[in-house]
Amino acid sequence: MNARVQQLIQISTYRSLTSQEEKVILDYLKSIPEVAVYEIIKSMVEQKSLVTIVIAKKVLHKKDYVTKMFSYGVLESNAQSIKLWLDFAIPKLGFKSVVKLIEDLNNDSNRLIEKAVYWLPLFISENENRSWNLLEKLREKVKCSPI
Q1: Cα 8–10–12 angle (5° rounding)?
Q2: Would you say the pTM of this structure is higher than 0.70?
């Protein structure tokens, strides 16, 4: 990774980047293989970079990498940032796939389902009955889980 990109990623951990600075990172990431892009974005999640999800949306396209990044990032999320991870993954993977991932990753310590059910309605249009049914099943799981 070139020094300028590395410096900008470091800067992004404590302040927002300008559009020009963000473009420098994007141009670099678009010039390298997606496997390398995934590793860089994963390190940005670890460093708590403020632009991680914005950049990931623009440079990660393969289903495998999107799935891995969502799985990694959503586990690092809190009740607020999970919305950003849902916004990253649902358009690329689909609502049903993301719900399945959340169910698979959920446990008593991360309580992903509880965090997700609050935000998931934002990603469903009125006429998507299957998605509403999936959401209702998730809500039932939250009600049934011990507190």
Answers
A1: 70
A2: yes
